[in-house]
Amino acid sequence: MERLPKIALPVVFVLIALVILISKSAVTIGSGEAGVLYKTFGGGVVTDEPPLGEGFHIVAPWNKVYVYEVRQQEVFEKMKVLSSNGLDIQLDASTWFQPKYQDLGKLHQEKSEQYIERILLPAIRSAARSVVGRYTPEQLYSSKRDAIQVEIYEETKKIVDDQYIQLNEVLIRDVTLPPTIKEAIERKLKQEQESLEYEFRLVTAEKEAEKVRIEAQGKADANKILSASLTDKILQDKGIDATLKLSESPNAKVVVVGSGDSGLPLILGNN
After folding, report:
1. Do residues 64 and 85 both lie within one domain?
2. Is residue 1 assigned to a domain?
3. Which parts of the chain have pLDDT scores under 50?
4. Co-location of 111 and 91 in the same domain
């Protein structure tokens, strides 16, 4: 095997050096990520320029790029907090968040890559303690869960809004009470439901009775008016009309005019 010319050796070394240099200078930012550039000889973290976006980038080998996920993320937290009367409540919450894209350099410089543990989670715990402490276990268990969720979100947002974190949502997954308190609340709720059903039946029965009374009074008033308007002459005329209609039927009968009670016709049939 022939030896390489002496002039080729430096070229090989240069090519190797270039390959090493490019490999150390090339940075690929993945989907849903962004990079914070740190200039070793140029003032440290770059905060006055947008972060490096997705794709391939060439940076000086003496600089460094810190990659952050900038898509919406979720963190789940189990917390023990106190209710307004001092009882232990376990709260399970999910938080949706993401770093503010344009402030990614400031987030890295001031809060570091551990911003979730250092900023976000303590803020959620503080807001949860503050909000839950305003409610009783019964309110937490039944009617106030949606209100608590909104209040925890609003208080957490106030804390993290100027910490370069975008808070999207706080979801209360579960509220766990001490077993004895939960059983007492369920018994109370059951009794209240039974009481409401009993009251409903009483109201329904009262309305039905009132309806019957009104109908009976109406009938009585109608009969009273009818009785007052009927005279003997009217009754005799109606009796005669009815007798005449019956006499027109084909059945054999004898009509004796003026022989009935009150002078009304008397009909004698063949039966």
Report:
1. no
2. no
3. 1, 4, 270-271
4. yes
